[in-house]
Amino acid sequence: MKTKPGFAFIVLAWMAGVHPVTAQPALGIAPAGKQSVLYWPVTPTNYLVQSATNLASPNWIYAGDAVPLAAAIVSNTSPVRFFRLISTNPPAGMALIPAGAFVMGNSTGDGDIGDASPVNIFVSAFYMDTNLVSYTLWQTVYNAAVTFDGYSFANTGAGKGANYPVETVDWYDCVKWCNARSQLAGLTPVYYTDAGLTQVYKTGETDNLYVNWTANGFRLPTEAEWEKAARGGLNGRRFPWGNLISESQANYYGDTNDYNYDLGPNGYNAIGSVGGTSPATSPVGSFDVNGYGLYDMAGNVFEWCWDWYGTPYGQPTAFNPTGPTSGSSRVSRSTYFGFPANYARCASRLGLGPTSAAVGTGFRCVRGL
């Protein structure tokens, strides 16, 4: 709609993401002096306002001048923008990680972390799997992708049981699997082998990939997204829940003699022996969630991230950083059942060759809003 000269030019759009809706919420615009107010219902759900400067090739960003509840104020001095309203109700099996700034890195001053200097990072809102990708889910997508969609993987994956995390998958496997999961769900894949984003990445192991960051499909988290999610809304803590850890909170190898923040008990976690001998992975969801409703953000298995490993991080910018443009190893976060608590810290980083498919290496997916 056009407005009178001197007022903001505003177009309103309702976006439901992938969520079915039964009725479009009533959106409105009202003049407020030299400003305009966009408004919408507070119920039955919560919404997030995003804006873009064009619709031909939109880059939707969080509308920072929006009031959290049900209004956004737009000044007549604001640039011309388009607005959309999206539901923040997460898809099944995922949690909303809210937009915002956080301190990424070693805020506790632990002397043995030398590659994670604290830095202020802003991450846009996204959805993350509440659980690690289970062996059952891996097999379901894997089998369909190989049989019907022309995918190929270097590793078939392994799991201790149906509800245990998949492991022994390399980075390339996980990236292709994300695309396959997207296509099976009727979503737009994220990873391609051409700059035009027409050739979906399905086969081989190549680093010459192009990412559609605005696609609604599944992908690996960036390192910054992973750490923000792991912290669960807490800043400056070693672990997702605080500065101490025990085997009642995560599946790792207890070592109270070497780490004063480890409450133990010593040795492999007994929860990991459910359904078999220890050491081993534990069923997904065996421990309490963090502040964002996520399980196993410390321990059980290492988790692949998108980024090349490098220092310093927060590249190329501190706004939604995606990591270095090249490297020899990819970032892996968290830890697995056989490593001690120092690897389970939120700031702990590990670089692994992307072809590594070791025991205790798995992943979880994220999706943009």
Task: Provide keyphrases for this structure.
four-stranded mixed β-sheet, 20 strands, 3 helices, paralog of FGE (formylglycine-generating enzyme), alpha+beta, 10% helix, 369 residues, Immunoglobulin-like, four-stranded antiparallel β-sheet, disordered N terminus
Describe this structure in words.
By secondary structure, the protein is of the alpha+beta class. The protein has 2 domains: 10-87, Immunoglobulin-like; 92-369, Alpha-Beta Complex (paralog of FGE (formylglycine-generating enzyme)). 10% of the residues lie in helices and 22% in strands. It has 3 helices and 20 strands. The protein has helices spanning 135-148, 171-184, 223-231, and strands at 10-15, 28-32, 35-39, 47-52, 61-62, 66-67, 71-75, 81-87, 94-97, 100-104, 119-123, 126-129, 191-192, 210-211, 218-219, 302-308, 330-333, 350-352, 361-362, 366-368. The strands form 6 sheets. Strands 1-8-4-5 form a 4-stranded mixed β-sheet, with no helix packed on it. A 4-stranded antiparallel β-sheet has the order 2-3-7-6, with no helix packed on it. Strands 9-12-20-15 form a 4-stranded antiparallel β-sheet. Strand 6 and strand 7 form a beta hairpin. It is globular. The two termini are 25 Å apart.
